[in-house]
Amino acid sequence: MHKYKTSAFPYLCEIAIDPGLAYTKRDLRVFNSKNERGVAVYGHSPNVLIVSKESYDHWNTIRVLVGALDTGKLAICGSNFPKDFPEYLMSSNPAIKVRLLNYDQSAEGRKWLRC
Fold this sequence. Notes:
Elements: E1 3-7, E2 12-16, H1 25-42, E3 47-51, H2 63-68, E4 72-78, H3 85-92, E5 96-102, H4 106-114
Parallel strand pairs: 2-3, 3-4, 4-5
Antiparallel strand pairs: 1-2
């Protein structure tokens, strides 16, 4: 199961991806329920940091999440990303900026999301 950690300041949701599971609409409902209070306060979805310690074969399913975000930034820390992955994600939601980083660059991803 994917694990979520949300903070109010900075307004950020960190998702630790389960390497064996695709990201589904059920996961999107969990994301929405974890962030509904922040959306009510801030008026939009949080910036998102996705971290995958292991190889993840379901990167294309992250599009489910990206399509549901209002605005903001998405930093993904992992490996084995598909070719043209940022463009693929942004095509489902042009209001989102996407940045790919290696797993060990999660601190840099958090810093970028705070700017």
